[in-house]
Amino acid sequence: MKHLIFVLLLIPIYTKANTITSGWRMQPIPVQTRWAKQVDPGNVLPEYPRPQMVRNNWQNLNGLWKYAVTDWDAPLPAVFDGEILVPFPIESALSGVKQAFYPMQRLWYKRSITKPDTKNGQRVLLHFGAVDWKATVYLNGKLIGSHLGGYQHFSFDITASLKDGENELVVSVFDPTNIGSNPHGKQTLRPRNILYTACSGIWQTVWMETVPSTYISTLYMTPDIDANCLELYVFTAGTSKDYTVEAVATTSNNTVSTITGAPGALLELPVENPHLWSPDDPFLYNLSVRLLYKGKVVDTVYSYFGMRKISVKNERLYLNNKYLFHLGVLDQGYWPEGLYTAPTDSAMIFDIQTIKDMGFNTIRKHVKVEPDRWYYYADKLGVLVWQDMITCASYSAFSAAEFESENEDNILQLHNFPSIVMWVLFNEGWGRYDQKRLTEYVKEVDPSRLVNGHSGANLDEDGPPLLKDMWISSDITDIHRYPGPGLAPTLPGKASVLGEWGGVRVITPGHQWNASKGWGYLDVPATEFASQYAYMIRKLCRYQKDGLSGSIYTQPYDVESEENGLMTYDRKVMKIPVAVLKKINASVVEVIQ
User: Fold this and answer.
1) C-alpha distance from residue 587 to each of 42, 191, 382, 539, 543 (Å)
2) Confidence class of residue 10 from pLDDT cuts 50, 70 and 90?
């Protein structure tokens, strides 16, 4: 029973949400998904937020908090404006507020939390999935700490500041969106064309957990299918003297292997004749990790891993030492009612599963980092992920420093998810600088994945004039072609991909965000879309035979005024029937000997 990790991941073991529901309602929007009505303020996103390191003793802090918007330099207000539903951005309909938030303002959150029962020196950790962009946290009037970055997890040990009974938790947020030096992706204060509504404040789960005085803080896992092992590091917080760690890999109720070692040391967990992970067979091993003090178990976490390898061979993309064409879509990660935050886990699962059902095997996550549970479902359902870095905001020194710092945090944060096979550093010249140095640095931080140093280099007006320098030090050559398709150049040692193409608009009345501003790269009547798409795929097949190893179609669903999705923004209308898409796409994903 203790190794039934997927049960633990899908069913919260202990949650206690803020159940005040007075006054909250979802604000009106032009379209919404079917999952919006399933959002319950007393039970918001209740699933355990960290599937790669599950513990039993935790408390969900999602729900209704008090909120206020003040001038950016104002102190904590005495009176708050109302209630906001965490973790939905203040600009979203599901927050219950749905108001713009500006760089000269500060957003305040407040709620009461109850001190958990602790004994034998246990610690209480306060976790934030993500807050955009600068978060400052106070407990009972005392500054706990602050964090810069809109996409990274962060935590504080709040044990010393907790008192018995009720405690006042306050979070203040400053977010310049596209005006500042912060990486912000497609967010803007003036949504239009390929830029979308801003997402400020808390937008991922807030939660507490109780841990021992010395506890497992991080797992770092890298599969090596050629050596038949999982490279595992188990890091701890607190003293490490007289502590050991034990890791056990299982399949169902069968033990695969066990290894014991010191905290922080490299552990090579044997996985003989590994069952390899792939989109066709997304097999995952269960993993339990125990921390022992003088032989006695003091902490246990549950996890999982997949055995897979990504590489370039003969200028082709190889998965598990076999050629596989990456047929993908460009996923912006936006929802009509929640913006950056999916209304439910079921909604996230729907997107990934539907993309697979359409016959795609790859998702390019475009200038956004998702909550951990999204990547867990990508792992479990079986889809390859190209993960973009969040665009550098400007060419200032501070922007560059923040970009590089957040890149490293993102790579380390996402390292354990086997579905991620490629890091995409720059896109179409946006914020591009020091490409060679940064591409090589990403490779150094994570040599287990491919690095796409510049997607759409052909659209970089200030890029290098020589072909060999456009993708310098990259594993990939990558162009964008709208509507396309097109063929990227072939360079020695690099696989060529079409990083973006498509963008065909099909107007779908009754399912548009803003009909007067809707657009696409090519307008096609609904009755002709399937034949147009099939024609484009036939061209793509010819490019595949000429050396193309992957393509990313724009896009799986409409986003705000960008109406070039294979389905509508509300996910209610498939513009080409799923079965038809799958049949058309099947001609592309084939093995070339």
Assistant:
1) 47, 37, 20, 11, 13
2) very low
